[in-house]
Records
---
Amino acid sequence: MGYELKQSDILDLAHTLDGRTRQKGDELFFQYCPYCHGGQSRDKNTFSVNLQTGTFHCFRSSCGRSGHFVELARDFGYQLDFGENWREKKFKRLPQKEITVRDPAVEWLKTRGISEETTRLYHITTRKKDKSVLVFPFYNENHVLEFVKYRNTDPQRIKDHGKEFCEKDTKPILFGMDHCQGFERLVITEGQIDSLTLAECGVKNAVSVPTGCKGFTFLNYIWDWITKFSEVVVFGDHENGRITLLDELQRKLPIKVKAVREEDYLGEKDANDIYQKYGRQAILTAVENAQVVPVKCVKRLSDVKSVDLSALPKIRTGLQELDQIIGGFYFGQVILLTGRRGEGKSTLLSQLDLEAIDQGYATLIYSGELADYHVKNWMDLQAAGPDNIQVNYDENNQPVSSIPADMLHKINEWYTDLAYIYDNNILNDDSSELESLLDTIEASIQRYDIKLICIDNLMTAMDAMPGEDFYQAQSQFVKQLKKLAVKYDVVVILVAHPRKTKEAISNDDVSGSSDITNRVDVVLSYSRDENNSGWDGTLSVLKNRLTGKLTPKGQEIKLLYSGKSKRIRPASSDKGKVYGWEMKERMQLMNLDNMKSFHMEEWEDLTDEL
Ligand SMILES: Nc1ncnc2c1ncn2[C@@H]1O[C@H](COP(=O)(O)OP(=O)(O)OP(=O)(O)O)[C@@H](O)[C@H]1O
């Protein structure tokens, strides 16, 4: 196994060598070239490593060293993981003697709100010969000094040499490990001042990463220790709307990772800023409020709004017995309507569409078989009802239903903004039409506020479609319909044929992919019943996802069919349906009558007075 380039290795090596780096795009510039050290004139920023490709180059013409990061690592004794055990890497052994805490360190940290007590507890000091350089010793859980980080406090030095650098060839671990007790919660910050701030505030087990927000090799060296914790709270820097360290730690650690909530940063960048501006309680609250970073697409069940299922909005079917069993068509549901050829599925579908219109819902019909004027004619007849239909006889002496023009006009006006039809009479055997059908449905939902989509009948059209993945296409189509239904809170009724032509139909008899009935919420089966004198057709509920109630065998819903109006109504009720357009007309007439009687009374009163 070869070496796989890791940005964290480049950053780690840079810190080990010198620590003063600058990043421009993907190029990481070292302050001095590790090969030529900037030559006699100490040229700066002539050496860079590309963080994406790993190539390095010194731009000083007299040096001009170039190559790959792997070579750089080899030349400077930085061990890379080539597949062999990384634990074999050799680090510098640091002197394990007591550290003298120097006053300038105490004083400087006080300016950041860190008390002398905390500074001494964590053995923060300055360099012996240069008091402007702070020294942060990193001890492991066994109190062994393994890593040292330096921080320039003099502004000029920061400008010339950068802010932080590390002791060469030391093992990167977390700062503050030696103060951790137990393995309940570990709070990780990006900088030592931040973890000291947390310690100052009394937050237990507060640590900081060794080489900034991009170096994660330290995890290799403390893996067994860190994975013992039950949870990690990431209190990184809040930069550009993100919390540093979070993504990487979340990806790498196999334990629960929480993050400080954005709002608990109170508009500040890091823990020390929060502490200096808002005090101890703000820090404690931030840590306590830390939340598990939500897994995409998963939410708490308790966050889901409780709904009264009986009060959920739905479209009533107009068939009372059916509504009693399935509750009506709930928004978000896909209803499959099956039945043998020519039994009356389209007729029933048209009426269900009309019922939705009557309840004020906009509907879209897709008919793959019937011409648009047929769909319209059937729906108009159903809307008009038997009492408003004239029957004439054609040349074969067959009855032909027709609606008087003024009534037709009223019906048209009534459903103008509520009834839409897909403008395609014959479905081509071209799969792109399926896509366009879905797109058209979606656009119609958005533009016309469609709440019911009736698809009649896709299966027949798809039967004719060539291609091996025919079943998969059907299944995918139904899946997409269900997605649309849920996304837009609409109802879809899909007509499908059964495989059987005789005997009773069950869910498994719906032709096409077996997935279809799995994907839908309700399966209805309609069949004519011509041999029976009491009714003309029956409707069975074969699947009902919401409540599970079905029509028991032999207790199917009995329906009457009128050839004159194409209406289908319950055999149990003799009331004829009056749709909105006619209701409106009746109301107007009633109002007119009321008005007339009012005028009469008023007239009589007036005559009395006169
Ligand atoms: N009992 C009945 N119920 C419903 N429609 C009936 C009944 N008896 C006769 N019809 C009439 O039968 C004809 C065929 O019905 P429809 O087209 O609705 O059936 P379908 O099941 O959709 O047919 P296909 O399987 O070909 O799509 C229509 O003119 C319809 O009005």
---
Amino acid sequence: MAEKDPIKVCVTGAAGQIAYSLLYQVAKGQVFGDDQPIILTLLDIPPMMPVLQGVVMELDDCAFSLLREVIPTSDEAVAFKDIDAAMLVGAMPRREGMERKDLLAANVKIFKSQGKSLDANAKKTVKVVVVGNPANTNALICKKYAPSIPAENFSCLTRLDQNRAKAQIAGRVGVTIDSVKNVIIWGNHSSTQFPDVSHGTVSVKGTAVPVSEAVKDDNWIKNEFIKTVQQRGAAVIKARKLSSAMSAAKATGDHMRDWFKGTPQGEYTSMGIVSDGSYGIEAGLVYSFPVTIDKSGKYTIVQGLEVDTFAREKMDATANELKQEMTTALEVCSD
Ligand SMILES: NC(=O)C1=CN([C@@H]2O[C@H](COP(=O)(O)OP(=O)(O)OC[C@H]3O[C@@H](n4cnc5c(N)ncnc54)[C@H](O)[C@@H]3O)[C@@H](O)[C@H]2O)C=CC1
Ligand SMILES: O=C([O-])CC(=O)C(=O)O
């Protein structure tokens, strides 16, 4: 069979810690498919160019069969030229004691500039995932400054939260990770996010049962579980003195793979997307919803899930935080 044409993929923050794990997955074919040749563009800031050269040397030395070309640069226009996919990782990470929104003033302007440059340089079909924090609001700003690219092409990463939630449930029940399905992350990638297992299932001895039936401890689900997932990033920072990188890279790969290839039959996944008003969430906010994705890469918000009073309160609290972040971000970007 004839070889596919290469796709062009940009990773920003390419000299940083998440990129170091992410680039391996992308170049190895674990994200876009093991028959999909890749051209990589790698963006970082000028002082990081010597470090980035080292990353390029290592990419060469990996001898990846699918990697056709690597373009390291500190110029957004070069990095975004005709790209099919953008993984916007480059931004300052938080340190111990900070909330992710404390990064807003420092990071949001990066996404204003990159939104403008994507608008001018990327393919109009480009799929963008924002990883740099505060991820939802950075994605909102990026989209705002790229008006010629459809809003549904912008997303932010909440897959790491979903993976964390699945791991907690699998560990608690004592099953493998793939036995846990349809765990949802609603809202902001922050400590107000709502990890919701009320529509999820666990496969126990070959039969799918509701998570609550498998866990048999609603108090744990409503308290410790939610808090553990909400605070997991902070716990990793406390332990490592650096924020999550291997797991963040894995989640970014998972997010993009599902977006390009589709979600498995009967399963949904969570991603931060521009709200269309579903579930009463203000249209325009970048909010994490459960979605299914078809083989052509089009996602649809899962509709009709029952929302009880407990869930409603949590979904609204995280939406309110996002509204406040949006107001601050628009102020920061107005000059
Ligand atoms: N959404 C999520 O689930 C997660 C998000 N993060 C966030 O991802 C971001 C990156 O984290 P790390 O890789 O650990 O940080 P890092 O500090 O190791 O790397 C960040 C890289 O971005 C570069 N950079 C800064 N400004 C840039 C710009 N304007 N254009 C291109 N590159 C730029 C830096 O020079 C650095 O090389 C942070 O904001 C972190 O908080 C981290 C984990 C999970
Ligand atoms: O917590 C942080 O600052 C990094 C991050 O977003 C995560 O690990 O989820």
---
Amino acid sequence: MKQALRKNRWLIAVTVLFSIIVSAASVLIAILLQRIIDAAIQGNMELFWQTLFFSIGYVLLLGLLSYIYAISSKALIRNWTIVIRDQVFRGVFRRNFEAFSTTNTADYLSALSNDIKLIEENYINPLLLTLQNIVIFVFSLAIMLFISPLVTGILIVCTVLMFVVPSLFGSALQNKQNAVSEQMSVFTLKLKDLLSGYEVIKSFALGKHADRKFGQENAAAANTRFAADRLLAMNESVSEILGILTQFSVIFIAAYLIITGHLSAGSLVALVQLSNGFVGPVLIIMQSLPKIQGVKPVVDRINALADYKDHSFQGVLEPTFQDNLKVSQLSFAYDDKKDVLLDIELTLHKGKKYALVGQSGCGKSTLVKLLTGCYEGYNGMISYDDVELKQLDVERLQQMVSTIHQNVYMFDTDILQNICLDEDFSEEAIQSAIQRSGVNKFLLQMPQGLHTPVSENGSSLSGGQRQRIAVARALIRNKPILVLDEGTSAIDMQTAFEIESKLLSLPGLTLITITHNMNPDILMMYDEIIYMENGRIAEMGSLEDLLALGGGFSRFITLEKSAAV
Ligand SMILES: Nc1ncnc2c1ncn2[C@@H]1O[C@H](COP(=O)(O)OP(=O)(O)OP(=O)(O)O)[C@@H](O)[C@H]1O
């Protein structure tokens, strides 16, 4: 937040300056009114014309100044919104894999939309209003003191009373605003869940259930907002009543002073006008301060997201992978309760091909995530060319690895952009990647070819087509390490075989394939099969060696094959 405001300091200065000028100038209306009324009562035609011409010029100038203020304050809000959204977005992407996945993405969405809007409405706007009204208040006070110290004294007493109100509502409102933000976050989360689950809801005919769930969340969000608005309304009404009482006091006392000959009629009009400029600002400040106070937890949350610093993996050494990747006595638990990986000993050599197999949940994906620097909290050692991973610059390490996941995310653009992902590649590289991945096979059926739109998360493509695009995405980058996390599971057997065979024949590439495909024709092409059981490496060797061993892997492959039949 502070940085976002600092970046706009010139615009803030202009806005504040014009806010002061416009506010001060608007107070002078009272003096003009006093002069017109007194001129009329005294029958002073010269003063009348003088004041009339001055008033016309004054109103035109005030209009122009107000316009400049309005434009600069809107530009300030626009710039602030751009900067703060950018900062929150970058803060989210500064999170490492582990930190990112501990928060639901709906929370990030809610912060970037609802929370920023809440801050604009309940922090930035009230802050500008408060400043403007402080200026009006001070100028009105000065002129009123000049016209009638007695009336001013009474006004001050009433105003002190009015200031007590916001402090009564402040902390209650803070809790309510916080609840609104939290409830909106829950609402966004549920809504995202329901929309993402569209297919499941439709295919299981769960429309009514979805309606009911949405209805509950919708009502809960609206009711939480209403609870905060109810308190705001009470705060505003109490302030309003106090304001009216104050104005009545001024009029009655001023009227008394006119009757006793201590005040002119013009001064009464000026005092009434000034009391508006005195009470009005106090009212606005009273309504604005609780809003500013109330939205503080939301501001804190946005600050925490924008200023997020990743303290994991502080290593700075340039990673290399000339020879090997070693793992020694590696253990890991996600939640400090149960070890997901235990005493892993492993050496992977550059250019070799490894198949990682084992029952679902035995820790295959977790092992690969640790090898590629996704989680830092492991015990034991992972080293690239004998340098511990924690000493390496992990961002650069991750640039050496391409991963093809089972569930491929597709951006809502076309096929080409989903392969290149905003990077520039030569025509030759693109053609080579689409050939080797098998993308060319289905492009023939598409009139727009590589420029065919894929729709939201690739919904206009089949699972296999999405996976082939993911393979092209990885191949075009030519990284030394490729992780295939069941990355061809949705492709037909023949194409999957072709793709995997091509990957297996790339000489410099180190391939780690997590697979449930127990086809011996493919498995025999791997240099080593790493068979895992309950978080440990149970067996490791070529297909031939492991089958000859007749241990856990042999039983596993037999079971998998019979399950597939
Ligand atoms: N982010 C996470 N937080 C907590 N536990 C997790 C997380 N990811 C995985 N696990 C747990 O860790 C264990 C190993 O999961 P992992 O995904 O590594 O298994 P896997 O062998 O790759 O399974 P599969 O073959 O089904 O993909 C499982 O018990 C799983 O529930």
